[in-house]
# Entry
Amino acid sequence: MKQILLSFALFLNGSKRYRSIKDFIRDILTNPDNPHKKYIDITIIFLIITSVFILIYEVKNPVHEYFDLYDIYFVSFVFAIEYLLRLWVHNDLSGHIIQEYNDARYLQRDFSLWTPLKKGLAEKFQYMLTPAALIDILAILPAYRPLRILRIFVLFRVLKLLRYTKSIKQFMEVLSNKKFELLTLLFLLFFIVMVSGIAMYVLEERINPHIESLFDAIYWALVTISTVGYGDISPVTGEGRTISILIIISGIAMISFSTSVIVSAFSEKLSELKENRIIEQINKNKSFLLICGYGQMAKMFFRQNEIEMSNYIILDNNFEKVQLAIKDGYRAIHEDASRHDTLQKFNIEHAKITMLCLADNDVENIYIALNAKSISHKIKVIARASSSAMASKYEYAGVDHVLLPNVVANTMIHTAITQPTMHKAIHAILTGKNIARIDELHVNTYPTLIGKNIEALNFKKSKLLFMGIEREGEFMFNPSLSTCIESHDILLVMGRQISLDYFKTLHEGNV
# Structure
């Protein structure tokens, strides 16, 4: 038996199909970012709502046999399958068995099957005792029907909404974050209710006709401290009225305190929910820009960008700068881009991401660049360096392009003094004035350019100045007219915006 189970565990562990199926089911059940999970959630929510509707409808109306069979068998069967799948993917029994087998071989001791089975089954049993798993198993129970009183268990299916409804899950997370404060208040409430109830029972059990047992007194105390006051039980002695005054004051204080705790928890969570929504929206784009740091360069970048951008997000670990960016009308969140878990929130696998490192100091920019490249080399990183000496350190960190604003500024100042006409021309190009613009033409976007030589394109006819070609990471300045255009080339041209638009339209129309 031991050998059979070990062989079966080795087979499962070595089966790529088994591992992929298990990983797929685990991901679709537990990963909120899985694109297919929303369909599972909608299906479960629909089954819950229809099941509860049938329960309510059958109170005064006869239910058709088809609806009864649907609720008894189909809904319960789906919930049972879901429960078993969650139990299956919770841990890996075969992994525990193989780990124990390898340890036994390494230490040259006898292999014990019971040890890994005990550990794996204990983990599954612990999962079965979690509140979510208990609700799942109770939601299956309504497959009975003959005992009418047990139909109330259908209501446990409503509690499954805690798992599948995002808003309710967020509400429960908020309460969970304030668990200590709320449990303290609950204990204090229990103490006051019990003491007040016992005192009222001792003082008025023989005098008050409405208090016949300790339960009546505790019921009165709970109704009074909650400030509901049904009026079915009221004190008749001076001592009882004194207790009522004290318990009412205590109730008001506890309600106010618990309300402030919950409100503060929601206010703390609100900014996080807003940021998560912004991240969800940005992840829907196939390409987007991450701007790390909101300083002078970031402000200049937005001022120079005439086209309204939608696929960007600003990350800054300084809360005041984030608020300033939001006040200026930009999309910003309070996050540290140098943290691994921060960048993991974005769609690294399927989106084309460009990251601008514009923090105030080089150390922070280098950390951000290292973090981005450690997650994915596909992330294009452009970083600001304070000096030429720091540029090599950025290159070691894997930065694709290093910006040297101080060097550029010094060069522009020198040019403005010594060659003012050239300065005017360069400034017009860099600021995108109508005089001229420099633009990149990605040949794969314009297939009709492929195979033609530069002379055939006749840039002069479109009133454009051809400057060069970037090919395989190398830039060829002013190549010969016989140079043929290849599919992955990037052409660098300069001219007025109207000329650039005309050239693009001309070749797009020939596709």
